[in-house]
Amino acid sequence: MSVPAAPPVDPLAIADQEQALYEVRRKIYPRAVHGLFARWRVACVLLTQVVYYGLPWLTWNDRQAVLFDLSARKFHIFGLVFWPQDLIFLTGLLVISALSLFLFTAVAGRLWCGYACPQTVYTEMFMWIERKIEGDRTRRMQLDQSPWGTRKVALKASKHAVWLAIALWTGFTFVGYFTPIQTLVHEVVTASLNPWETFWILFYAGATYGNAGYLREQVCKYMCPYARFQSVMFDSDTLIVTYDPLRGEPRGPRSRKVDHRAAGLGDCVDCTICVQVCPVGIDIRKGLQYECIGCAACIDGCDQVMDKMGYPRGLIRYSTENALLGKTSEKTTGFGKVTARLLRPRVIIYATILFALTAAFVASLYVRVPLKLNVLRDRATLVRDAGGGRIENVYRLQIGNAEEQPRRFVITATGVPAAEVVLDEASPVEIAAASTRMLPVRLRADAQGLSAGSHEVVFHVVASDDPQIAAHEKSTFFSR
Ligand code: SF4
Ligand code: SF4
Known about the structure:
Bound molecules: iron/sulfur cluster
Structural class: alpha+beta
Helix content: 40-55%
Radius of gyration: 32 Å
Oligomer: single chain
């Protein structure tokens, strides 16, 4: 790898930058980088995308394993069926996700941004395709500066065709979480997609194509709110990607044969490789900047330079503010040695809350009764004569069986003496697997002995073969 001389710093350009109200985007041509953290990023891309593209194709009990069926108002996640009444579980999941983000950020900075955020993942995929078709940084820059010709048109058209294909497949997969994906394939083949499916496939595809192909680092810099408030989760012991100025400065080019210490130079050869590999185009040597997504590409890039120069790796590394100031031992701050710095109040508080919430979430899922009951009174008739000295009130019972097998249920009521539940069909009533039924129910009682007015009544719906599966709902019985 050649070691070019440092570009001259233009003070006027810096003044212009500080005064500009609007900065015209400078296109970034990130250089390919290899190393430990690049391999981690590739692993995260593969893992997240295998899950995202693969999940809708899995089947479970002869239906799609993960399906958010909005029209039927139920979500299938493998063996579990969730209804709108289960919104609390979604809320719990979101709170756990947010707390996990806080915890990981407090421990090791923007891990989410650098390795798992969809914006990073899709940008990484789109950049990989760009490199394969147009070449690495220098060749891409030359191509963009060259006049339009057959070769340039062919390369650009190929790149955009592959980008569009991936974007459309991503949009198709997204809709496949809401419409059974096999049905969706059939609809695409027969050109019978409904307007909403068409809209969402194109919208999601357009967002993927635009964000990963064009906007890239601008989404992180200007659109993502997380970049703005992440600093409140950092403290002086948070692992962040840092340049070691004590070791690196004064920077400058030199021959490998020269004793740079004797020549008064630090370890930084000012090759700008760390800037060239940075997907957001910043210079980590200027210190921690909010634009830095913590992808560690500059660590891999600089380590390659250090290897070539015969210097120790880690001029740019995961470290902490306290370690750089000499307040904690450097030995405890490496990426693989974070445990020594974990026992800090902030981390302990986040971890404790996260553990308690996760335990409560798992426990509530475990004890969740797969039966939903909703009782609606007939508004047209308060009370009517049932003959033989009896009166009746009319209700509709909405019963949801959240299991993957049909079940039979017995319906009873308490609260009114000698109350009798009358159905239009034989008891026990059967509710099909993962479905809801609305049952008309009449509740009869002796008029004698009941004072005029309203009486609290409780409906009980109990599985005929398992008394543990039961739901109870209050309502009102009117007499006259
Ligand atoms: S400065 Fe380094 S860690 Fe930060 S975004 Fe650039 S390459 Fe990634
Ligand atoms: S920090 Fe490393 S990669 Fe960056 S300019 Fe200095 S030597 Fe080159």
